[in-house]
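Fill in residues.
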């Protein structure tokens, strides 16, 4: 693409490194984020492309998705005629199309890939976003087996296919996930339209073959879903329906041999079967018609050719061994046509002819049997190899089931066969304890309980009589109190004009309680180190919040400002805001009644200062949220330019 190449910096931030993929109307490049010092992927296209505005808008909407099964969109921008959006980089990831170059995957791995993809697309559908262009190139498998889907909303926007009703879009994504399942099982793409690097599925009457007709070991539910969805226009209506129908799936990558062989193996099978056919053709048989329809003349001709004897097509008789001619080649001295001949000559000729025909047919039958045996041997060898592979997969599956069974715990396994069950615990009291008490024992128990009740009653009356004996509540005798008289010299305070009453001055200077604080980055990701924001009201000046690092004092030219938003929990009349700034910076304080800075009032501004700073409003401002907004920051110890704020006090 013109204007994009290695070492190009897009948006003053993303250093382009290497082109990863040439898309129909865009390019995908690896890049490095110079601001956050991380690797990213940039999808760029010309700003004059017809889809540019729609694609950037789709990328902005996709940036709000936060699901680990979807490739995140990190940024959107324009730079010198180039439009681009930035995706997260997934190291050592391969697309499903690259994985399927080696053949189909194990059925449970195909189930896992399809289930993870469908779950991610369902999360996007819940936010009103769809993919609409799902192919094996859209599904990534990381080195740890994690599955991610890229291109939600953006792929359709680049193809100008966004104007699709919601129900139809959900159905298209569901069909796309079913097609992904079909491809993972068979390494073939079942939908119309070629997919680079993947062979098209063969077409049969009614659609495409079921996966079980191409690959071995396909589960019945996946096979039925593929057949109903791709051929009968039935099946799931949304990706979530599909995920619910195939659940559960393995939490980690399933390693093993798939049910379909790579294309090289298919070509080998064709060569194996073709060899016996060539043998049949050389023997004089026509395999395209079948052995039962091969004419005797053809068999005889083949036998004669191997024996070196001549063949007369007019009479269709092969000369007998030893030089005996057939009816078309009379022996000298015998009668010619129209002449009288003896019965002995005719009998000898007929016998010679019968012997020649029998010999030819026997030779042809032997050749046909030999060729058929060779074909059966080769086909049988391939079938045996396929059976051996199926047996290996079955043995591996049974071994996995046995290992899983060993981890299960059953109550029946708690006892060893033939062993006695555990004895009951020994009683702590003698056996006679369980017998009914005697009459004398009952009397003793009743007497003890009666004595206990009497004691409790006596102490209760005594305690009630003592209530109020040491107090002046009118419940007992009042105790006279000593009177202490304190005298002090009389002092007179003259009121002065302009001095408010103690109550009003005290209320104006009291700090308001702060409910919470968050990083405020409206021109970025709205999450400017939120975890450090509570430090601005912890009462500790030595702990502070700091922004992300930038390349210059004006925040690298990437945004107009960044800061902290303080929530007071309710609306107050705010007159003064005190700040503690660890580093020199330009800061402005705003007050508003909502979480945005749209309808706010400026309390005060400070430029080029640090330490304790007090900003006072001309008159009290009603507001719940206080915005500390930095427009110019200083370089800190790590060499980056950061905004820092230690304490905020609102009065």
């Amino acid at each position: 693409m013109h204007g994009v190449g290695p070492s190009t910096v897009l948006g003053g931030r993303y250093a382009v490194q290497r082109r990863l993929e040439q898309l129909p109307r865009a390019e995908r490049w690896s890049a490095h984020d110079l601001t956050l010092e991380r690797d990213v992927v940039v999808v760029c296209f010309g700003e004059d492309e017809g889809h540019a505005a729609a694609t950037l808008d789709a990328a902005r909407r996709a940036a709000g998705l936060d699901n680990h099964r979807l490739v995140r969109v990190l940024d959107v921008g324009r730079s010198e005629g180039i439009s681009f959006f930035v995706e997260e980089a997934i190291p050592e990831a391969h697309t499903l199309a690259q994985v399927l170059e080696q053949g189909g995957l194990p059925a449970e791995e195909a189930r896992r890939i399809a289930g993870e993809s469908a779950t991610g697309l369902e999360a996007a559908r819940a936010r009103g976003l769809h993919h609409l262009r799902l192919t094996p190139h859209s599904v990534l498998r990381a080195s740890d087996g994690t599955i991610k889907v890229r291109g939600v909303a953006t792929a359709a926007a680049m193809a100008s296919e966004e104007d699709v009703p919601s129900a139809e879009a959900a159905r298209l994504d569901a069909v796309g996930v079913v097609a992904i399942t079909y491809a993972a099982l068979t390494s073939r793409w079942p939908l119309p339209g070629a997919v680079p690097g993947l062979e098209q599925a063969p077409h049969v009457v009614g659609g495409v073959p079921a996966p079980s007709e191409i690959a071995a070991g396909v589960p019945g539910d996946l096979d039925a879903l593929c057949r109903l969805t791709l051929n009968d226009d039935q099946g799931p209506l949304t990706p979530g329906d599909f995920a619910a129908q195939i659940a559960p799936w393995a939490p980690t990558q399933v390693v093993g041999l798939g049910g379909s062989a790579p294309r090289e193996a298919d070509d080998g099978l064709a060569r194996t079967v073709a060899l016996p056919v060539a043998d049949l053709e050389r023997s004089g048989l026509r395999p395209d018609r079948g052995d039962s329809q091969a004419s005797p003349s053809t068999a005889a001709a083949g036998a004669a050719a191997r024996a070196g004897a001549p063949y007369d097509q007019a009479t269709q008789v092969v000369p007998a061994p030893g030089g005996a001619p057939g009816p078309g080649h009379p022996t000298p001295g015998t009668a010619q046509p129209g002449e009288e001949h003896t019965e002995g000559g005719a009998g000898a000729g007929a016998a010679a002819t019968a012997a020649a025909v029998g010999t030819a047919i026997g030779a042809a039958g032997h050749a046909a049997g030999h060729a058929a045996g060779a074909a059966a041997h080769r086909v049988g060898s391939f079938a045996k190899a396929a059976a051996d592979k199926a047996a290996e997969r079955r043995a591996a599956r049974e071994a996995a089931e046995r290992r899983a069974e060993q981890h299960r715990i059953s109550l029946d396994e708690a006892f060893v066969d033939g062993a006695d069950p555990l004895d009951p615990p020994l009683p702590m009291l003698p056996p006679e304890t369980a017998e009914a008490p005697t009459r004398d024992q009952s009397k003793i128990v009743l007497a003890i309980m009666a004595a206990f009740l009497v004691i409790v009653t006596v102490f209760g009356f005594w305690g009630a009589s003592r209530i109020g004996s040491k107090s002046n509540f009118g419940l007992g005798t009042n105790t006279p109190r000593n009177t202490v008289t304190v005298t002090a010299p009389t002092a007179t305070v003259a009121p002065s004009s302009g001095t408010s009453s103690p109550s009003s001055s005290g209320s104006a200077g009291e700090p308001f309680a702060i409910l919470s604080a968050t990083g405020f980055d409206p021109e970025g990701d709205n999450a400017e180190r939120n975890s450090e924001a509570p430090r601005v009201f912890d009462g500790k000046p030595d702990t502070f919040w700091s922004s992300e690092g930038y390349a210059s004092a004006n925040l690298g030219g990437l945004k107009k400002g960044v800061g902290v938003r303080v929530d007071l929990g309710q609306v107050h009349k705010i007159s003064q805001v005190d700040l503690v700034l660890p580093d020199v910076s330009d800061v402005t304080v705003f007050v508003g009644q909502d979480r945005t800075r749209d309808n706010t009032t400026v309390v005060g501004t400070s430029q080029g200062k640090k330490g304790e700073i007090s900003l006072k409003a001309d008159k009290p401002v009603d507001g719940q949220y206080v915005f500390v907004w930095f427009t110019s920051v200083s370089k800190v110890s790590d060499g980056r330019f950061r905004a820092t704020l230690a304490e905020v006090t609102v009065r």
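The mean pLDDT is 76.
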